[in-house]
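User: Here's a chain of 186 residues. Predict its fold as tokens.
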Amino acid sequence: MRETDAELASRAARGDPAAAEELARAHGPAAFRLARSLGLDEHDAEDVAQEVLVRLLGMLGRYDPERAALGTLVYRMTVNAAADLRRSQAGRPGRADTEVLRSAPARASAAEPGAADAGHIRRAVLAAAQDLPERQRQVFVLHDLEELSVSEAAAALEISETNVRVQLCSARRALRGRLAHLIADP
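Assistant: Prediction complete.
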């Protein structure tokens, strides 16, 4: 039976490298996936995931499982680290746009075989989401792509559940307009 995150965190805080490694294996892929979904390229997403894991392991001595689930902290730390990196890159030429998400086709061509496959749609949604205001993008990715509940997304972003719902509604409305070509009848 797998130990809980709280048990692993307690062991890792006491210096158990096996527990720290298990936590990294359990939460590293989620941090990487979230960073990619928030618009970072593969290299930057790896850097953010590594940074998050280092920070996470460094704060385990102060971790209180009664206040938040470890996964929630990983999401919060990843959102913050990705936002910090995006802000630091905003002024650098060639770094503001992400090559993978921006390369997704803007429109599906009827002549393109399999144009509406799930991979194409996901890339188009992620590309469109990059143009959303940052908070809307974060809420959309956490709730609709990472499948966090409204309360989990609120906890990860340290905002109210009402704010999550408002941001999510705005994000979905904007994305519907940008992605109408994918769902329009021929």
